[in-house]
Amino acid sequence: MSSLLDAGRRLRADRERLRFSTRDVERLSQDVARSRGNREYTLSHAWLTDIENGKFLPGIFKLYTLATIYGRPYEEMIGYFNIDLSQLGQTRRALVWPKTHLLIPNITSAMPTCDIPVEFRENVKLEQTQLVSQMFRSWSEVPVGLLQNLDLRNSLYGYIGIEDFTLDPLIRPGSLVQIDPRQKKVARSGWNNEFDRPIYFVELRDGYVCTWCDLSDAELTLIPSPRSGVATRHLRHPTDAEIVGRVTAITMPIP
């Protein structure tokens, strides 16, 4: 309750800074609602008074209206209520993802971005990735020289789910893989052992998988490690399975 009261006081200070009455805000909110085509953006004089007195938590539409009228960033307004969007990445670190996914930097795309290692992005609260897990906590232990070789401009990154044993023990669950999306052609020869065989990140209808592949006509064969216990799969290409790219680097947890 005290946090609501504090937030209400800050909202009142914003209004008074602009020398607006609650009636002024009510009128302006109607203009916002008309421009957005949604009455949920409207704030009545009584509702605003109750918010300022800490009685109510404004919804996302009304908070948008207040941010618009008061000239404050929406993220800052949310911060009034002890919600820090910059902590999204840190909060997601506690989650353990069971499935293999493609890493997509999308959470705070409005923020300035630069080419820096994935973990550092979250530490300095810039562009954050779609997936984070316990594996990211160990990034600080990776040699700096390894991090400098990451190519965030030309590469994608995938996280191997803790339930995905397709190439285990060659690529263990919880690993991070670097993917070159320019290399989508499946090589059928040119290697001498399993360590040299090209690995591909594949998008399926229900998720992703990191695996060896063989492509014959329109049939894509997903070939697991012989020691993984995972069955070989035959899928239609590209209808049911599509090559995202070739895996070019791996960061793997050590048991």
Walk me through the structure.
Helix content is 28%, strand content 18%. The protein is of the alpha+beta class. It has two domains: 2-83, Orthogonal Bundle (434 Repressor (Amino-terminal Domain)), CATH 1.10.260; 89-251, Ribbon (Umud Fragment, subunit A), CATH 2.10.109. Strands 1-2-3-8-4-5-6-7 form an eight-stranded antiparallel beta sheet, with no helix packed on it. A hairpin with a 2-residue loop joins β4 (200-204) and β5 (207-216). α2 (22-36) packs across α3 (45-52). Mean pLDDT is 81; it is low at 106-148.
Tell me briefly what this model is.
The chain contains 8 helices and 8 strands. By secondary structure, the chain is of the alpha+beta class.
Named CATH topology of the largest domain: Umud Fragment, subunit A
Task: Please provide the ordered H/E string of secondary-structure elements.
Answer: HHHHHHEHHEEEEEEE
| CATH architectural label of the largest domain | Ribbon
Portion in helices: 25-40%
What brief labels describe this structure?
elongated, single chain, 255 residues, alpha+beta, 434 Repressor (Amino-terminal Domain), 28% helix, 8-stranded antiparallel β-sheet, 18% strand, Umud Fragment, subunit A
